[in-house]
Amino acid sequence: MSFLFTPTPASVPPPNAGLTLSQPKGLPVHFQPLNPLQFILRAAEIYPDKLALLHPDVPYPVSYSFSVWCQRIQNLAYALIKAGIKPGDRVAVIAPNSPLIADAHHGVLAAQAVLCLVNTRLKPSEVAYILEHSGSSIVLVDHEYTHLLPSNLKTPVVVSNDTGRQGDPYEQFLSDGRAFSQERGWNGLEYHADENSPALLCYTSGTTGRPKGVVTTLRGSYLAGVANAYESRIHLESTYLWILPMFHAGGWTFPYANTFAFATQLTLRTVNYPLIWKHFLNSAVTHYCGAPTVQIGIVNDPAARPLTRPISAIIAGAAPTASLIGSLEEKGIQPIHVYGLTETYGPFTRNYAQASWATLSPQERSKLMARQGHSFATAQDVRVVYPPKDDSDTVLVDVPRDGKTVGEIVTRGNIVMKEYFRDPEATAKAFRGGSFNTGDLAVIHTDGAIAVVDRSKDIIISGGENASSLAIEQELASHPDVLEVSVVARNHVKWGERPHAFVILKSHAASGKWRGRVDVFGEELKTYAKSRLPGFACPEWVQVVQELPKTSTGKILKSELRRIVNRETAKL
Amino acid sequence: MSFLFTPTPASVPPPNAGLTLSQPKGLPVHFQPLNPLQFILRAAEIYPDKLALLHPDVPYPVSYSFSVWCQRIQNLAYALIKAGIKPGDRVAVIAPNSPLIADAHHGVLAAQAVLCLVNTRLKPSEVAYILEHSGSSIVLVDHEYTHLLPSNLKTPVVVSNDTGRQGDPYEQFLSDGRAFSQERGWNGLEYHADENSPALLCYTSGTTGRPKGVVTTLRGSYLAGVANAYESRIHLESTYLWILPMFHAGGWTFPYANTFAFATQLTLRTVNYPLIWKHFLNSAVTHYCGAPTVQIGIVNDPAARPLTRPISAIIAGAAPTASLIGSLEEKGIQPIHVYGLTETYGPFTRNYAQASWATLSPQERSKLMARQGHSFATAQDVRVVYPPKDDSDTVLVDVPRDGKTVGEIVTRGNIVMKEYFRDPEATAKAFRGGSFNTGDLAVIHTDGAIAVVDRSKDIIISGGENASSLAIEQELASHPDVLEVSVVARNHVKWGERPHAFVILKSHAASGKWRGRVDVFGEELKTYAKSRLPGFACPEWVQVVQELPKTSTGKILKSELRRIVNRETAKL
Predict the structure, then answer these.
(1) Which pLDDT band holds residue A572 (cuts at 50, 70, 90)?
(2) Which segments constitute the AMP-binding enzyme C-terminal domain (chains A, B) (predicted)?
(3) Min distance B355 CA to chain A CA atoms (Å)
(4) Fewer beta carbons below 10 Å: N end or C end of chain B?
(5) Angle CA(B433)–CA(B435)–CA(B436) in degrees, nearest 5?
C-alpha cells in the first residue's frame, strides 16, 4: 500500500510535543479516571511513527502515523472548543468509515464533549429528529451525506470532503483549531475528572417508535475497549479492517480496542466485497467485525479464496449458521462469535470454545458455536429471567438451566449504558429490576451458556407452540442452495400463525438448477425442513427473493417481512 | 503430568452451584466495582473442568479444576468469616508458592478482608514486626515456616501441611468453612461495594529501617491483572509456572492475570533449576516471571537446552544484560522486560520493541532492550523529575529528554499503591508532588523511554563524576566468563569513591582457565572494562566470590557489599 501523501502542516506535531492533558486537581495519587483517550496518547508516545490510520480506496487517499493522527485529534478538540463546545455538549458526526469519524471518537472526548453518532443510512426526517433530540451543538458531516441535513438547521456544520488535503473545509477546521491552541498542546486541554461522564450517544435504529439515544460512559468505553482487544487478541502487529460502520454502536468500541493495542486501522467507506478481498489478500489484515449477512457476502464473493495468513472475524448481530462457520473456516477466517446490543457497547457475551468440541462433527460443533455463550471479559453477570408478570413486576427470577425454558436476557455492570438520553421513562423500563432488559429471548443451557431463541416479537406461535424463527433459519440455512434466509410469522386460519420463509438462493443455484423452477425448490426446502424440524416449526410458505429488507445497521427488517406476508394473507 | 488425587469432599461444589456474590444495594445498573475476584468466578463458570492449579513436586501433589478451586476459595472465605474476620481485617499468609497462597489471593478478598503477604525468607523478628504492625487477625502458615512465628503470638494460626488431603489442618479449616456456609454458596457472601478498598498489604524488604506496608486496592489489582494478561499474551491455552514467589509484591498481580486469562498455574515451592527445566520441557509451560538473577540461573543450568515451543519470560527487578538476553533467546525464551516496584503492583513500565531494532546488532539491540521503557497498559504517566531542592520542595519538574540528565522516576494512577499502612509520614514523603516517588534514578531518552541509572544510594561518585553501578555491571556482564556481577562504591583516598566489582565466574571458567588464577582474571576484567567504559567508571578492584548476599526477594544486597568493602578500606 503506497501512495504519495503529505499530511497538512497543521497535522504535524511540533518537536517535543507533550502527550499529557492537564490533570484535574485533587485526585488521589492512586486514582486516575478511566478514559479511552489515554490509549491514543500512549500509542503516540510509544509508537509515534507507526502507521495508525490508512484510508486508501478514495480519490484522495491518506495515511497517518500515531503521532500525526494524535496531533489531528488534538486540533479537533481545540477546534470544537473554539466553536464554543463546552464539556457535556453533544457533537454530531454523520460519516461513513473515514478519518473524520475515527478522529471524532477521540477528539470529541478530548474536548470533554459527547460524540453523537448518526447512521448514514437514515432518512432525513430521522436525522432531523436525532439532531434535535440530542441537542447537538455542531455537526461534522461527510460530503456524501450533506443531503441528510435539515434545510432549516441552525447549528454550525463542518463538511469533510474526505481529502485530508488543504482546501478541505474539515482540514481548515482542524487548522483553525491548531492556531487557536496557540501551541499549548495537550497540556492546554483538561483531563475529564469523572469517569462516569457520558462518552458516546448512539441512537438505536428502532423498528417501531422513535429511536432511543444510548449514553455510554468513559469508564465503560475504556473497559469494553480493553476487553475487545484482549478477547480478539489485537496487538501491535495487527491490522484491523473497518467493514462494520463506526457509527454502529460506536464500532463496538473497536476504535478504542485498536488504539489500546497500537494496531493499524484501515477504513473503507462502503461494504464492497471485492475491495475487502483485495485487502484480505494484500494488506496484512488480521481482524474485522461484521454481522452474519456481511460475512455471507464475504465468503460468497467471487474473489474469495483460502488465505495464507488467518484472519479473525468478530461476528455479532445474529448467530452465525453452521454453514457460514464452515465457509469462513474453509477460507482461513476464524470466527469469534459475540453477542451484544448498542446498550452494551457491542459484545457482552462470547461463545467460548471448549476443548471437548474438537472431536465433534463440524455440524455439531457449529451448533455449539452458534450459542451466544457466557459473559465477556469485563462484563458482569448475564442472566436469563422469566418475563415480568405485569408492569409492576420488578423481581428478576432466573429460569432453570435446562436449555428449554425461554426467558429474557438481562445484564448489568460496567459495559451497560448509563441511560437513554432524555428519556427517563424508557430508561426505567429497560432497567427493570436493576438490570438492563435486552428484549432478547433465550434459554440457558446446563453449562451456563445462553442461546438466543428470538427477539420477543419474532417468536412464531404456531398451533399454540412457540417456534423460534432463528432456530428455523439455522436449519434452512444448512440447505446447500440457500444463501440467506429469514423466517417470520404469517397469520393462519387454522394454526393462528405459521412460519413463512424468505430465501435468497446462491447464485449458481439461482441461475442453474432452480432457474424458472423456484416453486419446485420451495417444495424441496419444505421437505428438507420436515426431516429436521418439528411440524409446527416447518415453513408453510417458501418465497424466493432477490434481496431482503434491512435496517440501516444491516439487520433484516422482520417487521417489514411480516407486513408483506400478512398484507397478502389479508387479501386472500 | 498425571498422579492419583481426589480433592477432599468439601472441595467438590454442589450441583448447580451459583457463582455470584450477593450484590451491594443501590449500585447504578452501569456500574460494578472492579474486583479481581470476578476473574476466578468467571473462569469457574466458563471453564469449570479445565485444570486451574497444579502443585506437582511435593510428597502430596494436588491438582484442581477451576470449579473445584473456586469452591475451595469459597470455603476459605467462609472459614475466615467463621473465625471472626470482618471486612477490612488483615489475614496474614506465610507460605511458599503452593495452593494455600494461591487460594488466599482470592478467598481473603471474598471475605472482604485484606491479604497480608509475609516473605518466607525473613527473620522471625521481622515476621513478628509485620504481624504486629499489620494487626493481622489470623495467620495461615505453611508447615515449613511455623518456626518464623513468634512464640508469644496471640492470634489464631492455621497450619497447612501442603497435602490437600483430609487430616491436614488447613483442609480441616476449609471443611469447617464449608460446613459453616450451610451451602449458602457464593450468594451468601457479599460483593465489596467500594473498589478503592484495600486488597493486599505487602511489606517491602527495606534494606534500612523498618519494612513498610504497601496497600493495594481492588480496582488497581483488577486493572494491573488485566494489563499483565494482555501485555504477556496469557490466554486459555497458557500455562504459567510460578517461579517468582507469590508473596513478592503479590506475584506482580499474576494470580489475577492468570485467572482473568483462564490459564493453568503450576506452583513450585522453591526455585529449583532442574525442576524448572523439567517443566519447561514437559509441562507445556508458556510463561513465567523472574528477576535477572533467577534468569541467569535458568539459562546456565546444565539441563538448559533449546525449547521446541517458545516461552515468554517476564523480567523485572533489574535490567537484563545483553548477555542474558542473548542466552535466553538462544534457548527460545522470549524476554519481556518490565520495571516496577511493590508500590506499583509490579510492572508499571515495559520495554516496547521497535520495528527498527530488527536490523541492529544483537549487542546494540540488547542495550535498547535493557531500557525500562514506557508506561504499561493500564498505568498512567511515567516521568523523570529533578530531585527535590529541599524537604519543602513539592514541585515536580521534568528533566529534559536528553538521555543524560539524571532525575528520579515518579508515577501516579490506578496501579500505584493507596498508601503505606499506618504510616502517613512515609506515605506523604513518597507521594511528594502528587506522584509516587520511586527512589530510582533514571534518564529519559528522546523517544520518551526511561532508563534506570541506579538506585539513588547506589551511585558511585568517582572523581566528582556520577558513575552508575548498573551501567558498569551491564558492561562487565558482557565478559564471556562472568556469570553475575555487582558493583558498589568503595572509599578512595584520591578519588573519593571508586567502583569495586564482585564477580561470580561461570563454572567452566572457575574450574577451568581461572582456577587458582583469579588475580589474573581480575586484571583481565579491568583491561576489558577500560576498553568499554570511561576511566572514572572502571573498577579499581575486582573480587571473585562464590555467591552474592541477597535480600529476601532475591535482590543483591549492595548495602552489605558496601559494608564489606569499606570495612576493608577502613582497615587499610
Answers:
(1) very low
(2) 472-555
(3) 9
(4) C
(5) 120
Range of the domain at B526: 460-571
pTM, full prediction: 0.90
pLDDT of residue B572: 46
pLDDT at A206: 57
**Quick one: closest CA in A to B215, which residue?**
A30
What mean pLDDT do residues A565-570 have? Answer: 72
More confident residue, B44 or A557: B44
Q: Which residue has the cell 473456516?
A: A329
**Ranges of chain B with pLDDT below 50:** 1, 571-572
Q: Are residues B77 and B202 in the same domain?
A: yes
| Contact criterion met (CB < 8 Å) for A235 and B233 | yes
Residue B168 belongs to domain with CATH number: 3.40.50.12780
Q: Are residues B114 and B169 in the same domain?
A: yes
Whether residue B413 and residue A16 make contact (CB cut-off 8 A), yes or no, is: no
Which of A30, A196, A219 is nearest residue B217 as measured by Cβ atoms?
Answer: A30
For B120-176, what is each residue's pLDDT tens digit? 988 899 999 999 999 999 999 999 999 999 999 999 999 999 999 999 999 999 999
Q: Is the dihedral of CA A152, A155, A156, A158 positive or negative?
A: negative
B445 shares a domain with B482: no
Using CB atoms, pick whichever of B47, B196, B434 lies closest to residue A29: B434
DSSP states along B241-302: EE-S-TTSGGGGGHHHHHHHHT-EEEE-SS--HHHHHHHHHHS---EEEE-HHHHHHHHTST
Q: Which amino acid is at B42?
A: R
Q: Compute how many other C-beta atoms are within 10 angstroms of the C-beta atom of residue B531.
A: 8
Contacts of B36 by beta carbon, 8 Å cutoff, 6+ apart: B106, B109, B199, B218, B221, B222, B225, B253, B256, B259, B260
ipTM of the complex: 0.89
Contact A42 B374 (CB under 8 A): yes
Handedness of CA B249, B254, B255, B260 (dihedral sign): positive
> Does one domain contain both A201 and A320?
no
**Cα(B566)–Cα(A485) distance, integer angstroms:** 85
- B354 interaction partners in chain A (CB closer than 8 Å): 47
Closest to B453 (Cα-Cα) out of B502, B387, B514: B387
Q: Are strands A346-350 and A90-94 parallel, antiparallel or unpaired?
A: unpaired
Contact criterion met (CB < 8 Å) for A29 and B416? yes
Is B533 part of any domain?
Answer: yes
Residue among B16, B48, B431 minimizing CB distance to A29: B431
pLDDT in tens, A92-114: 999 999 999 999 999 999 999 99
Q: Is residue B268 part of a domain?
A: no
Chain A and chain B share a number of CB contacts under 8 A equal to 102
Q: How far is CA B23 from CA A177, A433, B43, B44, B223, in A?
A: 47, 13, 19, 19, 21
Cα–Cα dist B58/B89, whole Å: 32
Q: Return the top range by mean pLDDT from A428-437, A467-476, B386-395.
A: A428-437
Least confident of A122-126, A271-275, B215-219, B249-253: A122-126
Cβ–Cβ below 8 Å for A416 and B380: no
Q: Give dist(CA A152, CA A150) in Å, integer.
A: 5
| A30:B412 CB<8 A | yes
Residue of A nearest to B434 (CA): A29
Q: Given an 8 Å threshold on Cβ–Cβ distance, is A47 in contact with B354?
A: yes
Q: What are A348-391's pLDDT values in tens digits? A: 999 999 999 999 988 889 889 989 999 999 999 899 999 888 88
C-alpha cell at B99: 495452593
Please state, as a whole number, how many other Cβ atoms lie within 10 Å of the Cβ of residue B342: 23
- Strands A90-94 and A138-142 come out as parallel
Query: Which positions in chain A touch B418 (Cβ < 8 Å)?
Result: 28, 30
The answer to whether the Cβ–Cβ distance between B29 and A233 falls below 8 Å is no
Q: Which residues of B touch A355 (CB under 8 A)?
A: 50
